[in-house]
Write a structure and sequence with these properties.
The chain is of the alpha/beta class and 279 residues long. The protein is built from 8 helices and 13 strands. The protein has a 7-stranded mixed β-sheet with strand order 3-2-1-7-4-6-5, sandwiched between helices. Strand 11, helix 5 and strand 12 form a beta-alpha-beta unit. Helix 4 runs parallel beside helix 8. The chain is elongated and about 70 Å long. The two termini are 45 Å apart. This is Xanthine dehydrogenase accessory factor. InterPro entries: MoCofactor_Util/Proc, XdhC_CoxI, XdhC_Rossmann_dom.
Length: 279
């Protein structure tokens, strides 16, 4: 088995395991370079190269920096490592970007040029639903269509139908979850509200929501704070969950929640796109 095949095999394994990583591929070389076009490397979320090779220190620093940025914003980028004299001819400085290409200086004696495509591979966003209400079941089904990895947690006795979810937990003990961007929704609607909300408060996420009225949330908030829960963590919850679309049916309420989650999920990318359009 070649190194190239081994890298692609590991890519498949890491994607299946919902792990975030960067695939760096050398797409062009000019003059003498250690790595040639087609060379690949997998860069883990902690910045280590776990497989493959794209050359030595001449390109490594610039690629690792681009990898960190790509994992942060989810956008691929091209890095061109060139000797100082060629950068001067192009009228660019090391660290400058032009037409979607980030330029870096090659200080190695070889004085070659390498263009490396840096592609982030992110796990599916994680939607954790606590409860088996009609809204919860509809939310799970709709979210899977949109590419979310759905975990539904509820006592088996509360589930009147088989949830359309990637993972089903009996009860509200969530255990270990993936490191993906996470959204948590409590949709118990009268069955285990307190225990589910307690579990949700203890779960880190980019979005927390409670399917219920403000009055009900206020009552639950008082109980949990009396038990020692953090008021700041509880106040982070959106209640009622979802955008105000005038939703009535469980399906419509689920849709409004997904619309709100989508807005939160894309917030950083939208800002990045707006900034790019101004350049």
């Amino acid at each position: 088995m070649t190194a190239h095949v081994e890298v692609l095999d590991l890519v498949a394994q890491m994607k299946a395991a919902e792990r975030a990583f960067v695939l760096a591929t050398v797409v062009r070389t000019v003059s003498v370079t250690a790595a040639k076009a087609g060379a690949k490397a997998i860069i883990a979320a902690d910045g280590t190269i776990v497989a493959g090779w794209i050359g030595g220190g001449c390109a490594k620093g610039a690629v690792l920096k681009a990898a960190r940025e790509a994992l942060a914003d989810g956008e691929p980028r091209m890095v061109s490592v060139q000797p100082e004299n060629l950068l001067a001819e192009l009228g660019v400085s090391a660290g400058e970007s032009r037409d979607g290409i980030r330029f870096a200086s090659n200080m190695c004696p070889s004085k070659g040029t390498m263009d490396i495509f840096v592609e982030p591979v992110l796990p599916h966003p994680s939607l954790v639903i606590l409860g088996a209400s009609p809204v919860a079941l509809s939310l799970a089904a709709q979210a899977r269509v949109l590419g979310y990895h759905v975990t539904l947690a509820a006592p088996a006795a509360d589930r009147t139908a088989q949830p359309d979810a990637d993972a089903i937990i009996d009860g509200y003990q969530l255990g270990e979850l993936s490191d993906a961007k996470r959204f948590v929704v409590v949709s118990t609607q009268g069955k285990g509200d307190e225990v589910a909300l307690r579990a949700a408060v203890a779960t880190k996420a980019d979005y927390h929501a409670f399917v219920g009225s403000r009055r009900k949330m206020a009552s639950l908030r008082a109980k949990l704070i009396a038990e020692g829960a953090s008021s700041a963590a509880i106040d982070d919850f959106k209640a009622p969950a979802g955008l105000d679309l005038g939703a009535i049916t469980p399906e419509e309420i689920a849709m409004s929640i997904l619309a709100e989650i989508t807005r939160e999920r894309r917030r950083g990318q939208r800002a990045a796109n707006q900034a790019a359009s101004r350049e």
